[in-house]
Design a protein that fits this description.
34% of the residues lie in helices and 9% in strands. By secondary structure, the protein is an alpha+beta fold. The strands form 2 sheets. A two-stranded parallel sheet has the order 1-2. Strands 3-4 form a two-stranded antiparallel sheet. The longest helix has 13 residues, at 29-41.
């Protein structure tokens, strides 16, 4: 068995260096081009199953690949989504540090243990 792992193409938030997590942003022009280029590279590769998250950017990337693999079984798995960035989504690092310095500092020290909360919360969450 061979496992291929890829990431979706570029989004406007990538270009602006913004956190997006669960924000359902689409691919930008370059991201669509990257998806087509990936599809071309995988054209001759046998793909039995393709798994993606439920976000538009992953769908757009998968759609490009599936044009060459219409027989491939597609699975949408929400559990492989991006890490949620809560109140940080749509902000860049400088904006996050200015608006949420306490959580920012904690996250820099332990990014796998600290999660910015949803917009209706005021404190950071410690995982684990």
């Amino acid at each position: 068995m061979k496992l291929l792992v890829t990431r979706h193409g570029e989004t406007q938030y990538n270009k602006e260096k913004k956190y997006y997590g669960r924000t359902d942003i689409e691919l930008d022009g370059l991201g669509l081009k990257q998806a087509r280029e990936l599809a071309d590279k995988l054209k001759a590769t046998t793909i039995d199953y393709a798994i993606r998250s439920d976000l538009k950017r992953t769908q757009q990337t998968m759609d490009a690949i599936m044009q060459y693999h219409p027989e491939t079984k597609q699975i949408i798995e929400k559990g492989i989504d991006e890490m949620p960035f809560g109140i940080w989504e749509g902000l860049n690092a400088d904006q996050v540090e200015a608006r949420d310095p306490k959580t920012w500092a904690a996250w820099l020290q332990a990014p796998f243990d600290v999660t910015p909360l949803a917009p209706n919360h005021t404190e950071c969450s410690r995982n684990g």
